[in-house]
Specification:
alpha+beta, elongated, binds zinc ion, 2 domains, binds iron/sulfur cluster, single chain, 10 helices
């Protein structure tokens, strides 16, 4: 490459990094010194800084930038962009391959398959360590303390139990009563089942989102004391759970009943699912292929050929 990419420092010699003077060698973007010219002419393939275009030293090759902070930012953004493009290409290729394979296996037209790509979960399922269990109980007890005034407030305001429960189990939708919308909600739950709780794996941690507000709501609607609610949540811990995911994430999904899950668990919709809900309007009953990935890793794919009919690959 002749010259540089002078985005961040156009007045710098690309070889010695000293200042260039007006009229000095503009073609090669050096200061005009013989050794700088020589360095540029004899190293046409030497990697350049992504920001200012100067010749990189060996220690700078990995980063792709010289010591300038502005150049490091340019190089970092470039790497992020390249990685995004590479991931998109890898995902597109994977989706095309999976659609072909599933269409062939189930004698379907590839065009008839709607694809949802999700960041899935395939964490290791293992028995609880006593430390994890104790951590969960301790933090639940601390949330129960915070829940006392909230519960008192609920009881004083007489919030209806039915209202609390119905709020918990709805995926928000613009037309909650239409049949199509109900079908879309059902399909969404199927997709989450096929995904195996990617969001639970990423965000559930040792708390499962059981915060003070949730404990107060549960105690209020079930007429339990907070201590009883705490015991109830502990009793719902599965024997085996996803080691690096949520405490309630078992091999068969969430071990909590929907009414005991936090609002965020009942209402969260990831990007892939949100897109599906927008794009499937009018063809809610079509065949859906859920492709679960994590980074450049293909975790699993599941064909949902009808609301009740699953074919797992
Ligand atoms: S919202 Fe559903 S589909 Fe999306 S990551 Fe969570 S479980 Fe998977
Ligand atoms: S409580 Fe259940 S739904 Fe909520 S993050 Fe944990 S496993 Fe997922
Ligand atoms: Zn120079
Ligand atoms: Zn630079």
């Amino acid at each position: 490459m002749v010259g540089g990419g002078p985005l961040t420092n156009p007045r710098q010699c690309v070889a010695c990094r000293g200042p260039r003077t007006d009229g000095a060698d503009t073609f090669y973007m050096t200061c005009g010194a013989a050794e700088c010219l020589h360095a540029v002419i004899t190293n046409p393939e030497k990697p350049r800084c992504s920001g200012c275009g100067c010749l990189l030293r060996d220690s700078e090759l990995d980063e792709g930038a010289c010591e300038s902070v502005a150049c490091k930012v340019v190089a970092l953004n470039l790497r992020i962009e390249q990685e995004k493009r590479a991931l998109q290409k890898w995902t597109d290729d994977l989706v095309a391959k999976e659609v072909r394979a599933h269409a062939e296996r189930h004698e379907l037209s590839p065009e008839a398959i709607y694809v949802v790509v999700v960041e899935g979960s395939e964490g290791e399922i293992a028995p609880y360590s006593p430390a994890r269990r104790s951590r969960f109980i301790a933090q639940l007890q601390s949330e129960a303390k915070k829940a006392e005034p909230i519960l008192l407030e609920y009881r004083a305001s007489g919030k209806s139990a039915a209202q609390s429960e119905s709020e918990d189990i709805q995926i928000p939708s613009p037309h909650p009563t239409s049949e199509r919308q109900m079908l879309l909600d059902r399909r969404s739950l199927d997709v989450c089942g096929a995904c195996r709780g990617g969001c639970c794996h990423r965000h559930g941690g040792d708390h499962g989102f059981v915060r003070s507000e949730r404990l107060a709501q549960t105690s209020y609607t079930t007429h339990q004391t907070l201590a009883e609610s705490v015991r109830d949540y502990v009793a719902h811990l599965p024997e085996y759970s996803c080691k690096s995911g949520c405490v309630f994430q078992s091999s068969s999904g969430c071990s909590l009943p929907r009414t005991k899950r936090a609002d965020i668990c009942n209402n969260f919709i990831c990007g892939g699912l949100r897109r599906m809900r927008a794009q499937l309007q009018g063809r809610e009953d079509c065949t859906i292929l859920v492709v679960a990935v994590r980074g450049f890793e293909h975790l699993h794919s599941t064909l949902l050929s009808s609301p009740d009919d699953l074919h797992v690959a």
